[in-house]
Amino acid sequence: xxxxxxxxxxxxxxxxxxxxEILWIQENVLxxxxxxxxxxxxxxxxxxxxxxxxxxxxxxxxxxxxxLDEDVRDRFLASLTIKEIADQLExxxxxDAADILGELSEDKIQEVxxxxxxxxxxxxxxxxxxxxxxxxGGLMQKEFLQAHIDWPVNRTIVELRKQAEDVEKVYNIFVVxxxxxxxxxxxxxxxxxxxxxxxxADLYQSKNIISVNTSDSAExxxxxxxxxxxxxxxxxxxxxxxxxxxxxxxxxxxxxEEADKDFQLATGITEPIERDASIWRVARARLPWLIIGLLxxxxxxxxxxxxxxxxxxxxxxxxxxxxxxxxxxNVGVQSSAIVVQSLARxxxxxxxxxxxxxxxxxxxxxxxxxxxxxxxxxxxFFGNAQLGFVVxxxxxxxxxxxxxxxxxxxxxxxxxxxxxxxxxxxxxxTLNDVTGLFIYFTIGMxxxxx
Amino acid sequence: xxxxxxxxxxxxxxxxxxxxEILWIQENVLxxxxxxxxxxxxxxxxxxxxxxxxxxxxxxxxxxxxxLDEDVRDRFLASLTIKEIADQLExxxxxDAADILGELSEDKIQEVxxxxxxxxxxxxxxxxxxxxxxxxGGLMQKEFLQAHIDWPVNRTIVELRKQAEDVEKVYNIFVVxxxxxxxxxxxxxxxxxxxxxxxxADLYQSKNIISVNTSDSAExxxxxxxxxxxxxxxxxxxxxxxxxxxxxxxxxxxxxEEADKDFQLATGITEPIERDASIWRVARARLPWLIIGLLxxxxxxxxxxxxxxxxxxxxxxxxxxxxxxxxxxNVGVQSSAIVVQSLARxxxxxxxxxxxxxxxxxxxxxxxxxxxxxxxxxxxFFGNAQLGFVVxxxxxxxxxxxxxxxxxxxxxxxxxxxxxxxxxxxxxxTLNDVTGLFIYFTIGMxxxxx
Lengths: 450, 450
Description:
Helix content of chain A: 55-70%
Oligomer: homodimer
Shape of chain A: elongated
Radius of gyration of chain A: 30 Å
């Protein structure tokens, strides 16, 4: 039932395109779901993709365009004329059109807009371009259904039929007053099952209406939609006037992107990588993290070389180097991950930084005492009680230190509007490696009296 | 506009509950959105929560119950009688009821079901309990709207009105034949704007209908809904008979849980932690990872102690211990993260394992040569060309080795139905630390001729 793209299919298709066998393409490609057509176009050359794209009807073109891989889409759009781009934008939802337009240069944006025939659509897009893309204003679309509170059901259906032409997915109708202020929400289901003479005022839900403001962050929108189980949320301006709506599918994309980004930063892959990317691109994406690791390792070598004398006298000190660095890194990443996750959830009542730090220090204290006790016994058997004391006191100090650093850095990054997830990556580990080594060897020198 | 829960509000509420001031509670709590009421109940004691809960009307009770924190809900349900639980289940969507019931013991499930008054609801729930919870069957709900292809619009509206009582969120109507086989989909919008005499057969969309099978995995369902931009997807059995539907909000929960789990495993937090969990619980959640790190560090110490003679003769060998372990860990985590992400996306055309390994080895080769060259120069300045060769050859070997291990382990875990995300955590890092150290000192011994 579901289409599966195979290499054989692609080979045949390429040949049919070369032979311009339009009939075959109509019967085998154009009948497919737009998402499947987009998947096929992703794999074709620009010229081949264009050949198929312009065989499709306009509405489906818009759907396909939004389903293409981002780099395929950019490449594809770059090969179109200004007029062709303008035509494509008119078929898109306003938020999608604004996203695509936002990728172009100032000059090109102007040109494309001036070439659009549908003034209303152009105006909507220009309006959306004013909002920051990570806010509700930047996420919302201008296509939604609205009904006046005084309309009866039959008039509402007539009016909505006009509005509905542009609106692809309908979940709710927003109810407004004369000044376009949001008063409530009416489900399509309720409308469908009502008497045609009933007034909207008697049908709609006005209690506990959840809306977001244009300036709310994308994280807040995601949190609100999740908390209140919403499929679409109305967007209002500062005067509570209805200006747009955000649907759950757009937020799902946002949630997935954010989660992927956090995971990638935590595991050292700095740019999103397609499954079939070239080896060179994959290698390049991983290099920044590795180079930071290399520099951290070099700094670590510098620290240890400063204690060369200690190692010559007590070689057993070298045994526990990996343990100290690994534990500092682990604790640091754990502490920062907790903070990053809280921040990503848009937690507002985050408590003050000092409270957070105290908590992490307490957790560090608890785990530090436990782990230090275990390692004392182990180090004792590797050497003697003296080695046991050096390793366990160092480990304890490093754990507390790493917990505090791990908590502090993402909070500081967030304060300066830098993505706090950066902290779960190489910075914390490298920083903790170097400070951990310094703490370890200093304590070693002191306790051994070197 | 949106409710913000404060400590002051909670303090007053607790007092009002103690004084049984029902009027105050009605005016200040029961008027709130159910998600806000749930947020309040999460913070109250079981007795306080029950007092408020049973003041609420039945439909809202169900909404509140599903919004409670999982441990609060478990505690809450445990304090109810069998009959009370049975009553609560009747108000829930079938999938939610089955989830809750699934948490109870076999015996208690039997008892609860026998106490349910609504036989149809009980039957639906029992049916859903048969499916594995991570499949489409386990995720689907029995509440959906369906229309027969031969009905005209007016009869459809009458029939749907009956069905719609139990269906909270309506997006689409599924169209079936006499044998209940899925033929297509009809949007509520289309139905609303159609002539009452028109037959469903002339209205519905039959091309490219996307459905999932009861046995499809949750990952597959998420991938299908995302690819085809669906808000709800019909679930069919092996005879293509319509048996349920899955809505996007349920899948969003699944996507978020999976992403959180992967992030937590990658950063060493083994159980999901609430923001206000006790310090003891937070500490305990992080211990497993740290203990594995401790054992890994001990193994590392064991390896290094085996080469104590080498360190005594060439102390500079100790300088680069942190670099070797850090780089092995980094490369391993990167490789495993890529595999984990591909697997999480439900990628089916994953290519064979051998191809994947070759690719990772090639990436490792590229980055290995580059990083080894850099470290040669650095190590040369720390010591001499001999140290440069030891460190750079070791680093190169460790990088290739870590890339292969990092790719292989999640694939093997996945093959044995163990969550592959486990691999991005401590196992890879610890394994790579130990093997890396062994490689490093062995190469050191060989090149220095010790």
